[in-house]
Amino acid sequence: MMQSLTNHVVVPVADEEDARATATVLDQYQFDRVTVVHIIEKGEGVPDKLALEQAESRAADAFDMFQEAIPEAEDEITYSRDVVSAIINTAEELEASSIAFRPRGGNRLVQFLSGDKALRLITESDRPVIALREEKR
């Protein structure tokens, strides 16, 4: 039986601006169900990047911005030190048909030093990963 790539799409967002840009691009395509995901980097004995309340507020703001373009989108917060694994695990837990993301650019040195999360997402995921194009201005 054939599966639809867009039956249930998990879409990670980093902040309000990323959420706005990602939702604007995604809204130009057909999909059945969308869950927007924000990963709060936390745990494993390492100091948090942001206070928990501030991180959760940032997630809520991102969800609000995303849902301005796609009101029916569900939202999910995940807490993990490893952002890529968290996205993949969340997609698995939600039984998503695919993961869609908007590459966040940056120069090659930054990508190399950060471990190129986009490449990891594409190569480590057990389901299709859709790279959305940049927003047209």
UniProtKB/TrEMBL annotation:
<dbReference type="Pfam" id="PF00582">
    <property type="entry name" value="Usp"/>
</dbReference>
<dbReference type="InterPro" id="IPR014729">
    <property type="entry name" value="Rossmann-like_a/b/a_fold"/>
</dbReference>
<dbReference type="InterPro" id="IPR006016">
    <property type="entry name" value="UspA"/>
</dbReference>
<protein>
    <submittedName>
        <fullName>Universal stress protein family protein</fullName>
    </submittedName>
</protein>
<feature type="domain" description="UspA">
    <location>
        <begin position="7"/>
        <end position="133"/>
    </location>
</feature>
